[in-house]
Write a structure and sequence with these properties.
The structure holds 3 protein chains of 3 kinds. Chain A is built from 6 helices and 13 strands. Chain A has a 9-stranded mixed β-sheet with strand order 9-8-7-10-6-1-4-5-11, with helices on both faces. A two-stranded antiparallel sheet of chain A has the order 2-3. By secondary structure, chain A is an alpha/beta fold. Chain A has a single domain, classed as Rossmann fold (3-Layer(aba) Sandwich), CATH 3.40.50.620. In chain A, strand 8 and strand 9 form a beta hairpin. In chain B, helix 6 packs antiparallel against helix 7, helix 19 runs antiparallel to helix 20 and helix 19 packs antiparallel against helix 21. In chain B, a hairpin with a 2-residue loop joins strand 1 and strand 2. By secondary structure, chain B is α+β, with helices and mostly antiparallel strands. Chain B folds into 3 domains: about 280 residues, Butyryl-CoA Dehydrogenase, subunit A, domain 2; about 140 residues, Butyryl-CoA Dehydrogenase, subunit A, domain 3 (Up-down Bundle); about 130 residues. In chain C, strand 15, helix 8 and strand 16 form a beta-alpha-beta unit. By secondary structure, chain C is an alpha/beta fold. Chain C has 9 helices and 16 strands. Chain C folds into 2 domains: about 160 residues, Rossmann fold (3-Layer(aba) Sandwich); about 120 residues, Rossmann fold, CATH 3.40.50. Classes of the chains: A alpha/beta, B alpha+beta, C alpha/beta. Chains in contact: A-B, A-C, B-C. At the B-C interface, loops of B face helix 7 of C. Strand 13 of chain A pairs parallel with strand 16 of chain C, so a sheet runs across the interface.
């Protein structure tokens, strides 16, 4: 079985992103970029499935600017077999990404698509679900455990109340949560090998997908600053403030 | 404890825009490897390992250092797993030959990873550092049989390697080595004791390969009677499996000022089996073939610990609220201490010298690659000459600055820096060893002034000075105030270096003792001016990039940092030149009794 | 145009996040309709009808709507959505699961986790882990939105009297099957992931006294942590330690009790959303970073607080 893993190049999780002062965007010029941490978990899972003999080929896919090739190379160094970059200099929103992924799934015919549950830049948490919808496949979101059976996948989902176990018909789209696994450190020899693995670059047009943005973002700004604290006179006031003002209890 | 993230942006800048990564990558030996394609990925992945695995173990290694239990050394918490992962990650073989399963990458790429390992955890990093030295030595001088048996496993990191040189009466002066080696069949039986053996024993690998200096019973006195032996902790069977335990035992661990996580062992040999490496009685010479690598790596330690101390100081200065902003009026709210001018001075002093050291160290790494791999023998020779001249400066200047900068780091923390809890003090204690081992600062200075400088009557240094002048010329064409100030300061620095060099050459001819008494000042002079030279080159690149509108934040920072170095650090050269010119007579004038 | 809110419920009652979503819907304008899809969900639908501001409840009662499997819910919502300008649901794991599927099937964008309504087509949402807020405008005919419940007040659960109308059932997709659910154990949550953390300092005085915090923590479903001073004094084991040399936490609510707020401790908890401190020394630095500070003897205040909750 072939597995497709989607990886996104995002601002590194250590970078404290701020809004530009003119409000036209987030100030991410020249900041460090890395693979979305959730996507690392997705790649790791794919590699473990391959090591367990359940997967024969791993195709790592990314979308965006040319530098996304670095992100794909990281996936290749972790153990993916080949890469595809859908290269675009214009912004790709979740729906467009899902459509591009669908086009690639139609072409590659994988039995499983793995994605991170959300990207840590726009925090949208949409692409996997959208892709599953477009494909008419089952979806397993926020997965902390994945077991592939005969034509079915059993998943444990991290839901608000605890853990939910579902059975999904294959092929299926899986969005992974951080507790699914701990991604490996990339080994130096594998970085050298990754350089030689095939990486195909294609344009959205070639996939026949209209990627024009549907949402318009404006007025990027800092969240309101922490307001100065107060001293409360007694326990009753404290409880009242926590309940009705801070709304944390 | 203090956290660490490798400054990969600056590392890449120095590698590609100052130290000539493209030229190194184009060398025939590296051409196939696609060095420039993988450089960034290697730095990023090494950073992950350094910051996420090694750095968190640093404080634990300090608080619970290596210890002995029933004659066996137990490493600090987490070190065993970390070492296993380090080896499995292939990091140990980054620059090792491909024929022994290394990656065969250049020293210029190895150097930033060494900076990371040492910044993250200097105690840990000493294990692969010493192992690399032993590997290099076997590679150059070992028999094919020894190479085949030991190198692949040492390069993979499955087995560790050590350098067993020092004895109680043979420290800086190794001519006094007393360990005895007696031939027996295809090997030798070795008896004696070694001290200060870094990672001399531990539980991180299945086997440890010691390289031991010892003398045969009939060997000539002094340095010409010392031979080099390979002594495995466990003997290796013909099929490569481990056999009997060799009689090399750790009989004690030192209690040290710093690097507590690194086991510093006293080793005893009792009829221990050793195999001759290279030729009889040429052990010391064989050992010296890897001396330049070792000295560069200790220089990197000075740089690395400075970077770690700097990152901690910056984080604290941005967080610690104390006092009010200087505005001429009282009032307003309290500010973080990074707003205080003197804290700025401290941070800039750290930052600018760190960047100067990095540029200088990586340049030296490039010289290593070029001197070993350039296809043209003349070019190889030229690179080698400059490498030989500057390597003692790399080692001593950077390790001395390491102590100074780690000490400033403590100062930024104020009282909290003097308290162990913040970790600032650990960096200072760890930094302290680097000016001592691999040849003290005094020995490096004597090597520079007494050997390297006089060997060609100052010709190699004159060529360095000529290159510096060329940079000064380039700066003349620029219009900005920053470049003008940098040019002026570099000009003064070069003048100081010329004066100091002439004075040192003259002193060496007239009164060598007095000259050597002053040689550390001369070495530091060379270091500061070399730093200024590299920072000036960095400023030129930054100026160009800024004009093109590239990565303006980084290059502006670089330009201002270079300006600070020119304004506040490089002028030290003038004073040092004056001390060299004054001569060392007064240093030596007192009688022993007068002390 | 009306706004459709997809309710989160357990077939019997409506979840609180739904009430906040109704508030968000009201801010958009127009009638607010609520869809209750489930199995045997009449009670939940009746409860939805009582929410203030809701003018109609749509009920879809079928076995395959149980557990809100996205594959089954999405076609239902898609079918109903054509009559609405906005479709909203809480940004809970339920809403996050099925809503993007709805958006894709409608060929519209989704606006995730809004925290404010600027106008009928423009909303505010946090990005970059909340470091940046941004306005998002949608040009799509139907706006598909998930709502961060904590950013909107809950609508009154009583007061409305909407009609409940059954809607046509869409077929089961047959793609997925719910097997089981394991609710989080009621044991104390893990320190780094707990929503509420109670931390104690040296002023607790003994490990015996630290148990005072346990009672409070049980009331709040909180984890218990400590300062280095308290750990060093042996009151609690070292895995309790919060701070530069211990664990770093960022809970919704942090309550610091009998601790001064040494800089090393602050480094481990300063990103907490709401910070409360209880200390008898009103000059203690912890008051400077606290949203709510109570000056008092912890030995009287803590039991009182535990009782009041």
């Amino acid at each position: 079985m072939k597995v497709l893993v989607a990886v996104k190049r995002v601002v590194d999780y250590n970078v404290n992103v701020r809004a530009k002062t003119d409000g036209t965007g987030a100030d991410i010029a020249n900041v460090k970029m890395s693979m979305n941490p959730f996507d690392e978990v997705a790649v790791e899972e794919a590699v473990r499935l391959k090591e367990a003999g359940k997967v024969s080929e791993i195709v790592a896919v990314s979308m965006g600017v040319s530098a996304c090739q670095d992100t794909i190379r990281t996936a290749l160094a972790m153990g993916a077999d080949r890469g595809i970059l859908v290269e675009s200099d214009t912004e790709l929103q979740s729906l467009a990404v899902a459509k591009l992924l669908k086009a690639l799934v139609d072409k590659e015919a994988p039995g499983l698509v793995l994605l991170g549950k959300q990207a840590i830049d726009d925090d949208s948490n949409q692409t996997a679900q959208m892709l599953a919808a477009l494909l008419g496949w089952a979806q397993g979101t926020f997965i902390s455990k994945l077991e592939l059976g005969d034509g079915k996948a059993t998943v444990i989902r991290e839901v608000d109340g605890g853990l939910e176990t579902d059975s999904l018909t294959m092929p299926t789209v899986i969005s992974v949560d951080l507790r699914l696994n701990e991604p490996r450190f990339v080994k130096l020899p594998n970085i050298m090998k990754a350089k030689k693995k095939p990486l195909e670059v294609i344009k959205p047009d070639a996939l026949g997908v209209d990627t024009s943005p549907r949402l318009v973002y404006s007025n990027y700004r800092e969240p309101p600053a922490r307001k100065a604290g107060i001293k409360v006179p007694d326990v009753a006031t404290l409880v009242d403030k926590l309940k009705n003002e801070a709304k944390v209890i | 404890m203090t956290v660490y993230a490798a400054p990969t942006r600056d590392m890449l800048f120095v590698m590609t825009e100052l130290a000539g990564l493209d030229e190194v990558a184009a060398l025939p030996d590296y051409q196939e490897l696609g060095v420039t394609d993988v450089a960034e990925a290697i730095l990023e992945e090494a950073n992950k390992f350094a910051s996420e695995v090694l750095a968190p173990l640093n404080w634990g290694g300090d608080q619970q250092g290596a210890r002995m239990e029933n004659g066996q050394v137990i490493s600090s918490p987490g070190f065993v797993d970390a070492y296993k992962n380090f080896a499995e990650g292939g990091w140990n073989g980054l620059s090792a030959p491909i024929e022994y399963d290394g990656q065969g990458l250049p020293e210029l790429l190895n150097t930033p990873t060494y900076e990371m390992w040492n910044a993250a955890n200097m105690s840990f990093a000493l294990a692969p550092l010493l192992g690399a030295g032993a590997t290099e030595c076997i590679k150059h001088h070992g028999s094919d049989e020894l190479k085949a048996t030991y190198l692949p496993k040492m390069i993979s990191g499955e087995w560790a390697g050590t350098m067993d040189l020092t004895e109680p009466a043979a420290g800086s002066d190794l001519s006094n080595v007393k360990c005895r080696a007696v031939p027996e069949g295809d090997h030798y039986l070795i008896n004696g004791q070694k001290i200060f053996i870094t990672w001399g024993d531990h539980d991180m690998t299945d086997n440890i390969i010691h390289l031991v200096l010892a003398r045969l019973p009939d060997a000539p006195e002094g340095v010409k009677g010392i031979s080099l032996f390979l002594m495995p902790k466990f003997l290796v069977n013909p099929d490569g499996s481990l056999g009997a335990r060799n009689k090399v035992d750790c009989v004690g661990l030192e209690h040290k000022l710093g690097i507590h996580g690194s086991a510093t062992c006293t080793l005893a040999y009792e009829d221990a089996v050793g195999y001759l490496v290279g030729n009889l009685n040429q052990g010391l010479m064989h050992m010296f073939t890897m001396m330049n690598e070792a000295r560069l790596k200790v220089g990197i330690q000075g740089l690395a610990i400075s970077e770690r101390a700097y990152q901690a100081a910056v984080a604290y200065a941005k967080e610690r609220v104390q006092g009010f902003a200087m505005k001429g009026t009282r009032g307003g709210s309290r500010v973080t201490i990074i707003n205080h001018p003197d804290v700025r001075r401290m941070l800039m002093t750290m930052k600018s010298q760190i960047e100067a050291m990095r540029a200088f160290n990586y340049l030296i790494a490039m010289h290593m690659d070029m001197s070993a791999h350039h296809p043209d023998p003349e070019a190889r020779k030229a690179y080698k000459t400059r490498l030989e001249l500057l390597i003692p400066v790399t080692k001593a200047w950077c390790s001395e600055l390491g102590i100074e900068i780690a000490s400033i780091g403590v100062q930024v923390f104020g009282g909290m820096g003097f308290v162990e809890e913040t970790g600032a003090a650990q960096h200072l204690r760890d930094a302290r060893i680097a000016t001592i081992y691999e040849g003290t600062t005094g020995i490096q200075a004597a090597d520079l002034a007494g050997r390297k400088l006089v060997m060609d009557k100052g010709a190699a240094m004159a060529s360095v000075i000529a290159d510096m002048r060329a940079v000064e010329e380039q700066l003349a064409g620029a219009s900005s105030d920053d470049l003008a100030a940098i040019r002026s300061s570099l000009g003064e620095g070069i003048k100081a270096l010329s004066i100091g060099t002439e004075a040192m050459l003259a002193a060496m001819a007239q009164n060598p003792s007095a000259a050597i008494a002053n040689s550390v000042n001369y070495l530091m002079l060379v270091g500061y001016v070399c730093g200024g030279w590299q920072m000036a080159r960095a400023a030129l690149v930054a100026n160009q990039k800024l004009a093109a509108g590239e990565d303006t934040d980084f290059y502006q920072t670089k330009l201002i940092t270079a300006r600070f170095y020119a304004d506040q650090i490089l002028p030290k050269a003038t004073a040092l030149a004056q001390t060299v010119k004054a001569g060392g007579e007064s240093t030596l004038a007192l009688t022993e009794e007068q002390f | 145009m009306s706004v459709l809110v997809i309710a989160e419920h357990d077939n019997a009652t409506i979840k609180k996040a739904t009430l906040s979503t109704v508030t968000a819907a009201s801010k958009i304008g127009g009638d607010v309709h609520v869809l209750v899809a489930g199995k045997g969900c009449q009670s939940a639908a009746d409860a939805a009808a009582k929410i203030a501001g809701v003018s109609k409840v749509l009920m879809a009662d079928a076995p395959h709507y149980n557990h809100e499997l996205a594959e089954n819910i999405a076609p239902l919502v898609v079918k109903l959505a054509s009559g609405y300008g906005h479709v909203l649901t809480p940004a809970t794991t339920m809403g996050k699961n099925f809503m993007p599927r709805v958006a894709a099937l409608l060929d519209v964008a989704q606006i995730s986790e809004i925290i404010a309504v600027e106008s009928a087509d423009t909303f505010v949402r946090p990005i970059y882990a909340g470091n940046v807020f941004v306005n998002v405008q949608s040009k799509d005919a139907i706006k598909v939105i998930t709502v961060r419940a904590t950013s909107f007040d809950a609508a009154a659960a009583e007061g409305g009297s909407a009609a409940v109308e059954s809607v046509e059932i869409t077929p089961a997709a047959g793609l997925s099957e719910y097997l089981s659910q394991e609710l989080t154990k009621s044991d104390r949550p893990e320190l780094t992931s707990a929503r509420v953390v109670i931390a104690g300092g040296r002023a607790l005085g003994s490990s015996e006294n630290f148990k005072l915090l346990d009672d409070l923590a049980d009331k709040l479903g909180a984890a218990v942590g400590a300062t280095r001073a308290a750990v060093d004094a042996g009151y609690v084991p070292n895995d309790y330690q919060i701070g530069q040399t211990g664990k770093v936490i960022a809970p919704e609510l942090y309550v610091g009790i009998g601790l001064s707020g040494a800089i090393q401790h602050l480094a481990g908890m300063k990103d907490s959303k709401v910070i409360v401190c209880i200390n008898k020394d009103e000059e203690a630095p912890i008051f400077q970073v606290s949203d709510y500070g109570l000056v008092g003897d912890l030995f009287t205040v803590v039991p009182e607080l535990t009782k009041a909750l």
